[in-house]
Amino acid sequence: MIKKNWHLRDKEKYCSCKKDACLRFLKCPSCGAIVLQCDKTGIIFNNPNDTSYVQPDNYVCHRCERHPIDHFGGVEIYEIEALGFSKEQIK
Ligand SMILES: [Zn+2]
Ligand SMILES: [Zn+2]
Fold this sequence. Notes:
- This protein has one helix at residues 77-82; strands at residues 23-27, 34-38, 44-45.
- It is mainly beta.
- The protein has a three-stranded antiparallel beta sheet, with no helix packed on it.
């Protein structure tokens, strides 16, 4: 089975919730937009490579505006690498 539950390892880069590797990669089922969500606080980074984030309340996909975050699914490792992250940066 292919693992699809990837988290960003170096949390210091973005999130201050103090939980280890809290940021999970999620993908929109319609448009394929990949975002990061904190497991603890729920905040969402629309661009995994950017430090700005939004609150999860009333969130819909920033690209297609069709899906709330709980419709988002797992991401393949090659898709994460395509965003510029290495295997060492995720777990
Ligand atoms: Zn966090
Ligand atoms: Zn979308």
